[in-house]
Amino acid sequence: MKKSVSVEWKVRACGVLLAVTMAAGMTACGSKPGDNGSTQGTVQESVQTQTDGVFADGSELGEGNTEFALTVTDKEGTESSFTIHTDKENVGDALTQIGMIAGEEGDYGLYVKTVNGVTADYDVDQTYWAFYINGEYASTGVDATSVTAGDTYSFKVEK
Question: The pTM is what?
Answer without folding.
Answer: 0.68
